[in-house]
Amino acid sequence: MWTLSQTGAGTVASRLGQPDLGFASLDDMSNHAEMIANLDPAIPLIADADTGYGGPNMVARTVARYHRAGVAALHIEDQIQTKRCGHLGGKAVVDREVFTQRIKAAYQARLRLGSDIVIIARTDALQTHDYDEAVARLEEAFAAGADVAFLEGILSREQAEQVCKDLSPKPVLLNMVENGATPSFTPAECQEMGFRIIIFPFATIFPAYQASREALVRLKKTGKTGLASEYTPKKLFTIVGLEEASKIDAQAGGEMYGAV
């Protein structure tokens, strides 16, 4: 099954023009998540909820906001509030008890809301402590109500296989950041190792950057972007819902978009 994934790093870079160093607020992240989730509600969205943005009350508020936004699953991590990308050095995590409280607060909020949002517990303790501590945190997170485990910064295939084995039969997610700390694996390889979910947070960020940069460099050098003739304004608007908007207008008796 295919899903969408909202990456915190991508949100911070595209919406704020900043590095992933804890700049994003709950409003930044939840508003972006709502936009993505509602592009096509039939496709589930896994969204980054960072640290939950505070203590238990803020975590509960975060879950409520993501639930109302239409998010299918969210991941909450154990980094300190001034967090950073999981594939950068110099990270720091909160005590295990604080992480467990975050997950418990998320679980209790889900119960109060009558929501089916999936809670993914992410730990970065592999870099700050060791493998055993990271797995212990994930086991406690499951006991507190998490549905899926997320071990960030896996360093080898052996480690990847081991965490799936150690947490079995609970589902484990792999964060497949190309050219980051984790070796590159295909979805088929991940399934063989025992992962149930794999996300590719950089799959669209760098290709979009590369294409935009190349077009602008061409424009600067030649005075033309070099876009193929098929890329018309109408094609762009069709991609983002022109036909659906026209249909809604027509069904209501409108004629505003009949000639577009």
From TrEMBL:
It comes from Knufia peltigerae. PANTHER family: PHOSPHOENOLPYRUVATE CARBOXYLASE, PHOSPHOENOLPYRUVATE CARBOXYLASE FAMILY PROTEIN. Pfam families: PEP_mutase (PF13714). GO terms for molecular function: methylisocitrate lyase activity. Transmembrane segments: none annotated. This is Uncharacterized protein. It catalyses: (2S,3R)-3-hydroxybutane-1,2,3-tricarboxylate = pyruvate + succinate. Signal peptide: none annotated. InterPro entries: ICL/PEPM, Isocitrate_lyase_ph_CS, Pyrv/PenolPyrv_kinase-like_dom, Pyrv_kinase-like_dom_sf.
